[in-house]
Design goal:
Strand content: 15-25%
Number of helices: 9
CATH topology of the largest domain: Rossmann fold
Order of helices and strands: EHEHEHEHEEEEEEEHEHEHEHEH
Structural class: alpha/beta
Distance between the termini: 53 Å
CATH class of the largest domain: Alpha Beta
Shape: globular
Number of strands: 15
Number of domains: 2
CATH architecture of the largest domain: 3-Layer(aba) Sandwich
Largest sheet: 7 strands, parallel
Strand order of the largest sheet: 5-9-4-1-2-3-10
CATH superfamily of the largest domain: HUPs
Helix content: 25-40%
Oligomer: single chain
Length: 332
């Protein structure tokens, strides 16, 4: 196999592939020949997407009775696939579960590990991942000196693009003798689905969304304007630690150092002062828009655009303007 083979872990191959996976495949093509890895039989929809994104080979790992939901077990599948295809790099999306899988896989294979890479390139024969650290205050470049690099890719790091030529993905089964580490037992597993908008459609997952509308203490617990603007934009909804502590929003929506780290293309923070804890979770956003009645709010210091005003007035007006613009655009 070519030394430029790039192994990409496909999170949801039994369904349609999500945008972050397609972004990882786009990066993989820039580095070499992408090969997919899945723990479940890929759907026809997923195979069609893989064809569009230039993937000719898909490894289907069979874990037997071992639970794939245990990160240490899933990592054994990654390690087995590494032994099979000899990749230069392994790419995973940057979910909490995948970060654990990446760490285990790097240990099993002796690979170098980079978490939350915003860009990846080959330089002087080495894989180099760029990322922000220390709550977004430093930009770093990490060159992997091991033979294999394992990297989780930050959502929205690139725009997913199809390959120039359509591929013909062939599925290759790989039996993996996986086992649960001694002293570990999977007792329970709860999947927290993304919230639904007013029409019942599922909103994007917070960690992966291209647009995020976040509300803080300035909402006074009324997130209706935040939800209205999010629905108009097709955005995910986020919040601050204060709002979670008040019981206004669930912890799943918390953005910050002890919550979810996001890097959307557009972030709108409404009624959020901008404490360092929150900065660390959203500072990598592409365009930052702040809405606050306090013109001295710290969030304005890092914002690209700022609106001084009451979010309960500003957000509904913005949502109405967006819907009006779209209606006018869609008129024959």
């Amino acid at each position: 196999m070519s030394e430029n083979t790039i192994l990409v872990v496909l999170d949801t191959a039994e369904e349609a592939l999500r945008s972050p996976v397609l972004e990882a495949l786009t990066i993989a093509r820039s580095l070499g020949e992408p090969v997919g890895l899945t723990l479940r039989c890929p759907s026809e929809t997923a195979l069609d997407q893989l064809a569009e994104h230039g993937v000719n080979r898909v490894v289907l790992a069979d874990l037997g009775d071992a639970p794939a939901a245990v990160s240490a077990v899933a990592a054994q599948a990654v390690a087995a696939a590494v032994a099979l295809v000899s990749p230069t790099a392994v790419l995973l999306t940057s979910s909490f579960a995948n970060k654990e899988i990446a760490a285990h896989a790097a240990w099993l294979t002796g690979a170098g590990l980079v978490i939350d890479a915003a860009s990846i390139e080959t330089r002087d024969g080495r894989i180099v991942g760029a990322k922000r650290v220390f709550a977004g205050t430093w930009d770093t470049e990490c060159a992997v000196t091991a033979d294999v690099a394992v990297l989780t890719v930050r959502a929205n790091a690139v725009t997913a693009e199809p390959a120039a030529l359509r591929a013909d993905p062939q599925v290759q089964k790989l039996a993996v003798s996986a086992r649960v580490p001694a002293g570990l037992e999977l007792v329970d597993r709860v999947v927290h689905e993304a919230s639904a908008d007013a029409s019942g459609a599922q909103r994007p997952a917070l960690a992966e969304a291209a647009i995020v509308v976040a509300g803080g203490r300035g909402t006074a617990g009324d997130f209706a304007p935040v939800e209205d603007l999010a629905d108009a934009l097709g955005a995910a909804i986020g919040t601050t630690r204060d709002a979670v502590d008040e019981g206004w929003m669930a912890h799943d929506a918390q953005i910050g150092q002890t919550g979810v780290t996001i890097a959307p293309r557009v972030y709108i923070g409404a009624g959020i002062s901008g404490a360092p804890h929150h900065h660390g979770g959203m500072q990598a956003s592409g365009t930052i828009i702040a809405v606050n009645v306090d013109a001295e709010a710290p969030l304005f210091e890092i914002a690209d655009f700022g609106v001084v005003g009451d979010l309960h007035d500003v957000l509904p007006a913005a949502a109405a303007a967006i819907r009006e613009h779209r209606a006018a655009r869609d008129e024959p």
